[in-house]
Fold:
Amino acid sequence: MIDKPGGRVCYAIMSFGGFLGFGEGYHPLPRQKLTYDKNMGGFVVDLDKKQLEGAPYYTDSDFDWTPEWGRKVDRYYGVPTYWP
Structure:
């Protein structure tokens, strides 16, 4: 997820569950929770299954993101919020 005016990456949206595109849950992860691993050639996150199960998520791909929702995600993960 990119802040359009500033061009800053704010969140990575990870999709879990579902079958053939039905029943998926979309989990936004704050950029600060992602670490690039050169050996793996990609980003990794230090989260366990329990943390992810309790994390904020949405199921509708047309979800209406608000700053309030972004602050909720940031509080859950314990990172400084991007939102005023």
Q: What stands out?
A: The first helix runs from residue 49 to 54.
